[in-house]
Design brief:
The protein is of the alpha+beta class and about 325 residues long. It has three domains: about 25-180, Lysozyme (Orthogonal Bundle), CATH 1.10.530.10; about 200-260, Membrane-bound Lytic Murein Transglycosylase D, Chain A, CATH 3.10.350; about 275-325, Roll (Membrane-bound Lytic Murein Transglycosylase D, Chain A), CATH 3.10.350. The chain is about 40% helix and about 10% strand. The chain has helices at about 5-20, 25-45, 50-60, 65-70, 105-115, 135-140, 150-160, 165-170, 175-180, 230-235, 240-245, 280-290, 295-300; strands at about 85-90, 95-100, 205, 210-215, 215-220, 260, 275, 315. Strands 3-4-5-6 form a four-stranded antiparallel beta sheet. Strands 1-2 form a two-stranded antiparallel sheet. Strand 1 and strand 2 form a beta hairpin. Helix 2 (about 25-45) crosses helix 5 and helix 10 packs across helix 11 (about 240-245).
């Protein structure tokens, strides 16, 4: 290739890059385009519009990321076992991970609302005040939406820099546009058991078993046939430690998909409180929120060994008397 041809090629590449850059979506443009559907999600699903917009801006680089451009996926939602739609392979934590593909960006926003509202691990979010974007940002991280320890701060900065909080309360000027957006279904919070598909692994055990975080505590999911001695050896802890960390008894029989902590649980859960559902036990609630069983009893002034009633509110951070009940 001669010098003239090389110069021409370089010029074309530079012009192409300039054109691509000039077409990039800015944050104000992103907000203007998607605030109506964020408000619609807030009205239907009780998810703060500020949080939806901030997550979209952060996860999709204002709609400019490869995933957003190629797959209309603005929230980095992976396929999971329940996804039957089109897929897009992209290297993320691992090579060629499967991400959901949507026909339009608006479908991504709708699926984001369904994703949060139908997974048990995010149930605690919907106990929060929808106007408390700071609590929502922190709780998203605590529930495992992202592994970046600065995730809450990043969302809060985007919200405050761009005044997104206003759409949580002063949304009447955009209500007409929001009401034009309709969803086919309005799902409710599910109480199904958590599984590996709902969490992002942070490491792997000696046999390749995935290790996850809940309430900043490392845990694995039990498998059918696991025994305390074998699982403890695999995780590098003593059997008595595994029993103590999880408030198990020595004859505990593992259920497939049961949470098993590798470290001590904490004195507080990751949510303020839990509303007891059919089938809940003090131990299952303790495991789900990563709170020590004795602390759960103490905070709620309950006798050890007793079980909660359906509909009962169990406090996870402050004691019952401190909450005025």
């Amino acid at each position: 290739m001669n010098g003239k041809s090389s110069f021409l090629t370089l010029t074309i590449v530079l012009i192409f890059n300039i054109l691509i850059k000039s077409q990039s979506i800015t944050i104000p443009q992103y907000i203007d385009r998607y605030r109506a559907i964020a408000i619609r999600n807030m009205l239907d699903f009780k998810i703060p519009a500020s949080i939806t917009l901030a997550q979209g801006i952060l996860e999709s680089a204002n709609g400019n990321s490869d995933l957003a451009v190629q797959a209309n996926n603005h929230f980095g939602i992976k396929c999971h076992k329940d996804w039957l739609g089109k897929t897009y392979l992209k290297t993320d934590d691992k090579e060629d991970e499967c991400f959901r593909v949507y026909d339009t960006p608006e479908e991504s926003f709708a699926d984001h609302a369904r994703f949060l509202s139908t997974r048990k691990r995010y149930a605690s979010l919907f106990l929060l005040d929808k106007n408390d974007y700071k609590a929502w940002a922190q709780s998203l991280k605590d529930a495992g939406y992202a592994t970046n320890p600065q995730y809450p701060q990043l969302l809060i900065k985007i919200i405050e820099t761009n005044n997104l909080w206003q759409y949580d309360t002063n949304y009447s000027p955009f209500l007409a546009d929001a009401e034009k957006i309709k969803f086919k279904d309005k799902p409710v919070i599910m109480s199904s058991q958590d599984n590996e598909d709902d969490f992002e692994p942070v490491s792997f055990g000696l046999t390749g078993r995935k290790v996850f975080l809940n309430n900043e505590i490392k845990f694995v999911f039990a498998r059918k046939g696991d025994r305390i001695e074998d699982l403890a050896r695999e995780l590098g802890v003593f059997p008595r430690e595994l029993i103590r960390y999880n408030d198990f008894d020595e004859n505990h029989k593992f259920q497939d998909g049961e949470i098993v902590y590798m470290q001590p649980k904490r004195r507080k859960g990751f949510a303020e409180y839990h509303i007891v559902k059919e089938g809940d036990t003090m131990l299952s609630i303790s495991q789900f929120y990563g709170i020590k069983l004795n602390q759960l009893y103490s905070k709620n002034k309950m006798e050890k060994g007793s079980q909660p009633k359906v509909g009962q509110r169990l406090w996870l951070k402050k004691k019952k008397k401190e909450m005025g009940e």
